[in-house]
Amino acid sequence: MSSDYTSKLHPGVKFPSIEVTVRGGDSLTLGQPQHGLDWQMVVIYRGRHCPLCTKYLNQLQTFKAELAEIGVDLVAASGDSEAQLREHMSRLELDFPLGFGLTTQQMTDLGTYISDPRSPQETDHPFAEPALFVVNSEGTIQVVDYSNNPFVRPELRTLVNGLAWIRNPENNYPIRGMHR
């Protein structure tokens, strides 16, 4: 495959096994729900340098309980270092796990777009552009969204309402976007 293309994860495929360290020093595997829930929303964000990421993460917190009610666990991760995450926490009011230290290879395995910093003041490492995955109880990607910039992300109210609808067994809603 030419370097002009990136490989994206498709709906209906197994989510890759990617382990991250979370604030507090523990580790977890992305896509493996915790807290007795059977689905997981995995949000990949750019890092502490991105004010839109800060806003989005804080908005996600307001949906955490509603997601849990429909069986969806929540985790977010970035390529930031532990020190960068600690600094970022001063602007975040979250109680869901935040992973740090995603490597460029892990970002590639997730299919994210990867950017270089515009300056050393922005950050000191290549970073993933926003991506969001909803992994179902079989470890399969149910919903996926990629962006190549910080300005395009799923609107959270619509997303949570949609997940509630998908999770309702009466709707018998399949994974969409299976043709490649």
TrEMBL record:
Annotated Thioredoxin domain residues: 9-165
Species lineage: Bacteria, Pseudomonadati, Pseudomonadota, Gammaproteobacteria, Alteromonadales
Q: Extract the GO molecular function terms from the UniProt entry.
A: antioxidant activity; oxidoreductase activity
Question: Where do the TM regions start and end?
Answer: none
One Pfam family this sequence matches: AhpC-TSA
Record-linked InterPro entries: AhpC/TSA, Thioredoxin-like_sf, Thioredoxin_domain
| Protein known as | Alkyl hydroperoxide reductase subunit AhpC (Peroxiredoxin)
* Source species, domain of life: Bacteria
